[in-house]
Specification:
Strand order of the largest sheet: 4-5-7-6
Largest sheet: 4 strands, antiparallel
Structural class: alpha+beta
Shape: elongated
CATH topology of the largest domain: Aspartate Aminotransferase, domain 1
CATH superfamily of the largest domain: Aspartate Aminotransferase, domain 1
Low-confidence stretches: none
Length: 247
């Protein structure tokens, strides 16, 4: 999460130097963080906003660029500039229809408020686990965009197992938790990047109270297994290491 002053200050500097201020809302926008746009948490006023991913509810590939009218006029200022940006499949009726339907559902079903409410419950439950599990180092996020960060445990045996996995492949420890959540609980998560021990949780905006309780129980169960040196996730990790060594 950025420092509270970072994004407003970046915006101020762009304004000062006449630079266009662009906010990427492709993943953080459309209710994901408990606001329509993630930048609203910092009261940002961008010149350009990019959106995609959730714009069709995930059913149709669609993206959009929102920009100030003056910028649009300068970009397409005349006939010679009409081809500055073009797209073979731009503005197709299926994508536009899906986008409009998604926006209607987002508003009529109160999904933005639900993301804010359920996100608070998830973050609170996950934050309580930080004290209980050595490998769990930090939990952060806004709404239903949550990062779960893992790091080396202090217990000697557990630390040795961690080191063995991380020597084989950086980020493998978090990947094992992801695999355990899917295998044992059918809970879909993902690591936030290659060689990164952070799990990214992006649950659907229709999440219910029951879903939150199930997710918290599943994550706690996966962490319990991860903190046992024998069995569970570590056996899976050893299997991956042996298979890699054979290759």
């Amino acid at each position: 999460m950025p420092d509270e002053r970072f994004l407003p200050e970046a915006q101020r500097l762009c304004r000062k130097h006449g630079t266009v201020f662009i906010v990427d809302e492709i993943q953080a926008g459309l209710g994901r963080t408990g606001r329509f746009f993630g930048g609203e948490h910092w009261e940002l006023d961008p010149d350009i906003v990019t959106v995609s991913k959730a714009l069709s509810g995930g059913y149709v590939p669609v993206g959009a660029v929102l920009l100030l009218r003056d910028l649009h006029k300068k970009t397409f200022s005349g006939l010679e500039r009409c081809v500055v940006h073009s797209n073979t499949f731009g503005m197709n009726e299926l994508a536009m229809g899906a986008g409009l339907a998604m926006l209607e559902v987002l508003e009529s079903e109160g999904l933005i408020d639900n993301a804010a409410h359920q996100g608070e419950r998830l973050l609170a439950g996950l934050s309580e686990m930080v004290e209980r599990y050595e490998m769990l180092h930090d939990v952060r996020g806004e709404g239903l965009m949550i990062g779960i960060e893992f790091g080396p445990p202090s217990l000697l045996k557990l630390r040795a197992a961690w080191k063995a996995l991380e020597t084989m492949q950086a980020g493998l420890s978090a990947q094992l938790v992801v695999m355990g959540l899917m295998h044992d609980h059918r809970l879909l998560t993902q690591v936030s990047g290659h060689r990164v021990n952070i799990i990214k949780s992006l649950p659907p905006l229709i999440l219910t109270n029951e879903d939150v309780e199930y997710a918290l129980g599943a994550i706690a169960s996966a962490l319990e297994k991860a903190h046992k040196v024998r069995g569970g996730l570590w056996d899976l990790g050893r299997g991956l290491v042996k298979a890699a060594m054979k290759r």
